[in-house]
Amino acid sequence: MSRPRSTDPSVALSIAVPQSLKTRLDQELSYKQSRSRWVCHAIKEKLNQEFDYDSIPTRQLIGMLHARNVITTELLTSLMMQVAETAAEQ
């Protein structure tokens, strides 16, 4: 009896990486470890990673909202003044 087919079959993916990065990866893996499996795991970790919104400065977030037309210029000005006042109080 044959093995059942995978529900998520693997596909070949050709990418170019710097030689130094390949060397570092090869040093990280033991002889029996799979480079493909390691790279797949790293990609999944990166894709599943939560974005850290705290790392973006408040002024930049407000500017992004304005650039996307989520807030008006008047609201942008008001929020920027509030940010400046809050920063001055701290």
Explain what this protein looks like in three dimensions.
- The mean pLDDT is about 90.
- Helices cover about 55% and strands about 0% of the residues.
- The chain is mostly helical.
- The protein has helices at about 20-30, 35-50, 60-65, 75-90.
- The chain is elongated.
- The longest helix is centred in the C-terminal third of the chain and has 17 residues, at about 75-90.
- The termini are far apart.
Write the layout of secondary structure elements.
Elements: H1 19-28, H2 35-48, H3 58-67, H4 73-89
Helix pairs in contact: 3-4
Number of helices: 4
Oligomer state of the chains in this structure:
single chain
Q: Extract low-pLDDT stretches.
A: none
Got a strand count? 0
Shape: elongated
* Rg, Å, rounded: 24 Å
Relative helix content: 55-70%
Largest sheet: none
Defining key terms:
elongated; 90 residues; mainly alpha; 4 helices; 57% helix
Concise synopsis of the structure shown:
It contains four helices and no strands. It is mostly helical.
